[in-house]
Amino acid sequence: MKKQSNLSRLMEYAGKYRILTYLSWVLSALSALMALVPFVYIWLILRDVLNAAPDYAQAVNVPHYGWMAVLFAILSYLIYIAALICSHLSAFRVATNLRLAVSEHLATLPLGFTETFGSGKLRKIIHESTGAAETFLAHQLPDKYNAMATPVGLLVLLVVFDWRLGLLSLVPVVLGFVIMSAMTGERMADKMRQYGNALEAMSNEAVEYVRGIPVVKTFGQSVFSFKKFKATIDEYEKWVISYTKDLRMPMMFYTAAVNGVFAFLIAGGLLFTRNGVTPEFLLNLLFYIIITPVISLTLTRIMYMSENEMVVADALTRIDSVLKADSVPESSQPEHPKDASVSLNGVHFSYDGKTDVIKGVSLDIRPGQTVAFVGPSGGGKSTLANLICRFFDVKSGSICVGGADVRSIPKQEMMDTISFVFQNSRLIKGSILDNVKLGKPEATEAEVLAALKTAQCMDIIEKFPEGIHTVIGTKGVYLSGGEQQRIAIARAVLKNAPILLLDEATAFADPDNEAKVQAAFAQLAKGKTVIMIAHRLSTVANADCIYVVQDGQITESGTKDELCAKGGLFARMWKDYQTSVQWKVAKEG
């Protein structure tokens, strides 16, 4: 089966606007040919001036030729503008449809896709990769046909006046193409992929770096602890320097070749005028000296066009990495939860399809029960929570909510069944009202206010003159980590799902905010099944059951007192925690 070209793929997103793309090519090519006509009038002006010398008053047609040159130059410019208007209308439509396609497909993917793929990488694809496609259609394709039409017109002009000088003018063209082929091709395409990968990695780590700044401030870590971010910058630097050095010599020879046309013309002029200079030859030589700079300009545009095509090919490959990601499968025989119970049966899970990070976990959580996952970092606590929410699908085993396999519960019903509050609550750039209504879009302002009151948020609302209509992230309106957390809790209160999942929800709250967050949790958790993940063990001390997660397995379970009596890992963690909370800063004497 023949592989579909990148251009035909882009045209699928253009719809009825694709005709404008084709029209832009025709207009752009016509503009290029029109742009050469003034050179013909310049030749006519030179001819009249040389023929009239020394009585220049006889060159009566010079003003006419001059105005005709100006007229065709303006006409060429206007036609080119018309070409760009057509190409931009189509390109904007393509970019819009590409972004819609990626965004709509994202909505069908597992919720954990963004975390594993990388939000920085995803943002770069949605904005920059689709932007590359837009630039390609809006500017680079019209310029391509403009640059293709120019050599055709030039070839005619170069051989019409003096074929010998015309052939000499083409020698740098041939040399330029030979050197250009050494710089482009599959090797260059691979370099462009590496360049895109380096930029993506740096963008992704930059996002994670910014998100991790609260950790640095909280725990006083040095910024150099972000080794991955620094490593991506170092890798990008190494790649750019190596790439620049590789192209240094070819680019130097290419520049010398395309700008060396005058050397060939001068050598030819000396050779062809051994027996004297005729006015006709001088006229043609002057014409070629004037028009040949267009050759170097056209060649350079063609060289960059090949690079642009590789950029858009790489952009489409990156867009495909999202569009071809597998959607969450929907069951043809949907099941519906009967209650707010949760059960895991022999669950195995792997992020890479090879190494299991969850290894045969089984547990049962009764409706209305409060349970906690604790254990060492990287043990699998958050992964278990993500599997329960169906952010990912299990590798083997099953997870049931209300007796129904999560893979058979309709997506919307699953989202209505579970609310979650994470340690890094995400608020959109919008009003507080809009942020809370994400939990229940059809809610009234009265319902939103009630949810905010339950979530202990009234002190936040009262400090802003516009109240719940205050837009976060504009005019200096920003919330602290604890305040953002309480807004996120209000969202969960409004949603009122029977199962509540809290993942390190008080990690970065200051003492005042933590007290309010805990009070909000107490209100939110009433009558609900609650699953908590926490490193701060005081927050899980009253849980009905505590599961100790280590190396992807449940190693202990029971109440706080039962686990302390066992003397296992939890007992050691509790002892260490009690010691840490008794630490005091000693005063200097």
Features:
single chain, 589 residues, 10% strand, elongated, alpha/beta, disordered C terminus, four-stranded antiparallel sheet, six-stranded mixed sheet
Characterize the structure shown.
With 589 residues, the chain is an alpha/beta fold. 62% of the residues lie in helices and 10% in strands. The protein is built from 20 helices and ten strands. The strands form two sheets. The protein has a six-stranded mixed beta sheet, with helices on both faces. Helix 18 links the parallel strand 7 and strand 8. Helix 5 packs antiparallel against helix 6, helix 5 runs antiparallel to helix 11 and helix 7 packs across helix 11. The radius of gyration is 35 Å and the shape is elongated. The termini are far apart. The C terminus is likely disordered.
Spatial ordering of strands, largest sheet? 6-7-8-3-9-10
From the helix content, strand content and strand pairing, which structural class follows? alpha/beta
Average pLDDT reading: 81
Give the % helix.
55-70%
Global morphology:
elongated
Count of extended strands: 10
Radius of gyration: 35 Å
- Low-confidence stretches are 584-589
Percentage of β-strand residues: 5-15%
How far apart the termini lie comes to: 84 Å
Number of helices: 20
- N-to-C SSE string, H for helix and E for strand: HHHHHHHHHHHEEEHEEHEHHHHEHEEEHH
Reported for the largest beta sheet, the result is: 6 strands, mixed
